[in-house]
Amino acid sequence: MPLRTMLLVLLLVPSAALVGLWGLATYELGSEYRVQAAQHDLKTTVGPRNAALFNALQRERRLTQEALAAPEAPRTALVGQRAATDRALRAFEPLASADTSDGQQGLAAAISRTVRVTGRLAQERRAVDAGTADEERAFTYYTEAVEAGTEVFAAISRGADGEVTGLSQVLFDLNGAVDMINREDAVLARSWPSGRLSDEDRDLVTDAVGTHEYLLESRVAPNLNAEETRLYTAMTRSEEWRARAELEERLQASGGGGVELSPARAREWRASADASIARLEELIGVHSQVSNAAGAAGVQQLKLYLYSIAALGLFAVVMVVLMTWRLTTLLRRRVLAVHGQAQDLGQRLPQVVARLVQGENVDVDAEVPELSPAADEFGELSRALNLAGRTAVHTAVRQAEQHRGFERLLQRIARRTQLLIGLQLKKLDELERRHEDPRLLEDLFDLDHLTARLRRYEENLVILAGGQPRRRWRKPVPLLDVLRAAQGEVQDYRRIEIDVEGRPWISERAVGPLIHILAELMENATAFSKPPAPVEVKAAPVSRGVVVEMEDRGLGMAAEQYEAVNALMQAPPQMDVMTRADDVRLGLYVVARLSAGLGLQVELRPSAFGGTRVIVLVPQDLVAERPRSVPDAAGGPTPEDAGTPLPPPRRHAGPRPADGSDDLPVRSRGQAMADVAAPAPAPTGPPAPRTGPVPLPRRTRQANLVAELRAPAPQDAPDPQTPSSAPTRSGATIGAFQRQSRKNRAGARPSAPGTDQSEPPTREDRG
To answer: Where are the alpha helices (DSSP H) in 190-237?
Structure first.
């Protein structure tokens, strides 16, 4: 971008941003002014109409209760009040179609509910006149209509202006107090003719008294101004107010079984209640004027503030635009030289860093020569840019050298440790061939298992340091043996269940990395799932190669964690192990690097069991055909083995990888005791009854391995017994061992006549 264009951007972008901010501020103030003005108009329009309907419904409720309690009394007052209520209702109903989009929240719903409830007023009146509605039904309906009006008061008491909202809340509480006194009056109105106040009605009166006393004393009185406080004090000290309060106390103090009411009390209550309500309505009128005046003043003040801010903002925008234009014109000449230097440095630094990443040596003085700029502000800027470039290149060179040196040191240490581990594995293999004691073999197998895991951890260091594992195979290996080898490098290998469909083989160049990848994934599955939950590993050929599915029953991960891990598998980073020392997912980095090198596809998904399901796709170019020299049964389990859990892994004494490292681990503790002796051939005649314990079955060493993995016996070791037929499955051997063990534990008993002790193990024996 040309320098002139950049300066124009520096001019236009801040100017446009300032104009946008000015416009946004003006719009927000205008919107606030519009909302407050609309809320003030609605309050001054809805409030008086709702108050008129509110008071009319309360008076009609009391007169209706009196008419139902004394049907023979004249209803002149009730008829007149109904006409007044109808006038108030006709004035209120047009509010349902008023525009309340900028009004208080919930106002439209409250008005609609009031119109809907009062729509049943004519029906309820007819029921009262016909005598089909009792006092309780009429009281419930009118109370519902009054409560709808109370909701309207609550809605208009909310607003955008905090001061006006506080004043409106006091007005709402005053109307609530009036409602409670009128409700109390309606309950007593239906009790005066009978001369007795029931316990239920006394409870209603008590609740109403407590509510209006709380509203007036706790919510209204503390929030009144001086004039309103004077009116409130005069109201509460008046004779009528005291008379009504004393009568309420006498009604509340009465015991159970109802309260006796006299005509004298009725006349006393009527006078005091009417006077109290009139004083409350006077106080409401005064407070309404105060609240409306505060709302109008707030709207006017906001309008003035809006005009002032808009004018000042516009003036500031114009001044900023003019000053910025002038300054950018003056600075353009001075920036050209520095711009050229920065452009040159910006082009050179990425090239230097890219060369360092590729392993090239960089000379700092040659790449970023030191400059001698002019002695002014822009000269200081040029000198700072030059110094920053030299410092950046020098720092990148040192970090690259330190990183490469650390990787070489880490690989050297890991390689030496791998040599020692390889020697240890060879020594353990010799001891396993030499000894037949089951206990000693079990300890040797445990030590062998730990050493195999240690070898994998050392390979992790090599991989993270930028190297590759050196275990190599010269021939293809069955996938089943690869899975067992990976299982043998896992600490909690007994929980892993392997099931292979068909007899797929893996190319020799993929055996070592695939074992490492599967071992890391199996260890993660066992580590993050609670024992003894199994980890199911299934493999099967597909159209694009071979798929290995691994599923645990742990806690799983969040959706974003699955996305992050799958992204890591797709593009493993060039990781500096020193910066990842605290990351618990180092095994996943190893899997990502090895998978990227082989072209494997690894994907993690949520499992139906709540854990994690890992899918490893081995491409077709890494899948080998079964060698012709290998018998058909050597490639994996027979069809009847499908679904049968494989025995725990063990190491065998077969051929080693091409680099001399250890071979595939496929031996378990359970098979150690089966190494003691081989099963005797079955007798041709009827077996003689046994008088001693049944001998344990014997296992032929390496009988369950394919030909490529078998190794000749050592020179100093006795010749192993040659099997008379194809090797049986390791699962059958363990089943036979378990069957004979159960017989021995049951005691030495003679065999039944005609029973062949050498009969092959049944499916139940295979366990």
So the answer is: 199-214, 226-237
The mean pLDDT value of the chain amounts to 76
CA-to-CA separations, 275 to 181, 239, 244, 251, 280, in angstroms, rounded: 11, 9, 9, 19, 9
**Poorest-pLDDT segment among 94-103, 569-578, 617-626:** 569-578
Backbone angles phi, psi at 107, to 5 degrees: -70, -45
CA distance 447 to 660: 20
Please count the helices (runs of H) and the strands (runs of E) in the chain: 18, 10
Q: Quote the percentage of the chain above a pLDDT of 70.
A: 74
Give the number of C-alpha atoms closer than 13 A to the C-alpha of residue 437, restricted to the C-beta side. 6
- Tens-place pLDDT, residues 223-241: 889 988 999 999 999 998 9
- Residue 260: φ, ψ to 5°: -75, 130
Enclosing H/E stretch for 67? helix 3-69
Which uninterrupted H or E stretch holds 539? strand 535-542
- Minimal CA–CA distance to 283: which of 234, 342, 240, 326? 234
Other CB atoms within 10 A of residue 37 CB: 18
SS3 category, 307: helix
Q: What distance in Å separates the CA atoms of residue 98 and residue 42, rounded to the nearest whole number?
A: 9
Whole-structure pTM value: 0.43
Q: How far apart are CA 502 and CA 623, in angstroms?
A: 13
Q: Which of 53-57, 68-72, 572-576, 681-685 has the highest mean pLDDT?
A: 53-57
Q: Which of 56-60, 194-198, 557-561 has the lowest mean pLDDT?
A: 194-198
Spatial distance between the Cα atoms of 550 and 528, rounded to a whole number of angstroms:
13
The pLDDT tens digits of the residues spanning 147-159 come to: 998 898 888 888 7
Question: Could you tell me whether strands 496-500 and 535-542 are parallel, antiparallel, or unpaired per DSSP bridges?
Answer: parallel
List Cβ neighbours of 123 (8 Å cut-off, separation of 6 or more).
Answer: none
SS3 content of the chain, % helix, strand, coil (to 5): 65, 5, 30
431 near 714, Cβ under 8 Å?
no
Separation in Å, CA 611 to CA 61, 379, 518, 617: 66, 63, 17, 20
Sorted by sequence, the CB contacts under 8 Å of residue 129 that are 6+ apart come out as none
Q: Does residue 594 contact residue 618 with C-beta atoms inside 8 Å?
A: no
SS3 assignment, position 496: strand
Task: Give the model's pLDDT for residue 548.
Answer: 96
> Side-chain half-sphere of 28: how many Cα atoms within 13 Å?
6
Q: Is residue 717 very low, low, confident or very high in pLDDT (cuts 50, 70, 90)?
A: very low
Residues 172, 176: Cα–Cα separation, whole Å: 6
Cα 629 to Cα 113, 417, 500, 728, distances in angstroms: 90, 36, 22, 19
712: cis peptide before it, omega within 30°?
Answer: no
Pairing relationship of beta strands 535-542 and 505-506 according to DSSP bridges = unpaired
**Residue 328 CB partners (closer than 8 Å, separation 6+):** 7, 8, 10, 11
φ, ψ at 20 (rounded to 5°): -65, -40
Least confident span in 21-25, 129-133, 330-334, 579-583: 579-583
pLDDT band of 255, cuts 50, 70, 90: low
CA angle 480, 518, 672 (to 5 degrees): 55
Residue whose structure tokens are 């909310």: 158
Is the pLDDT assigned to residue 220 strictly greater than 50?
Answer: yes
Is residue 377 exposed (0-12), middle (13-18) or buried (19+ Cβ within 10 Å)?
A: exposed
Residue 377 CA to residue 379 CA, distance in Å, equals 5
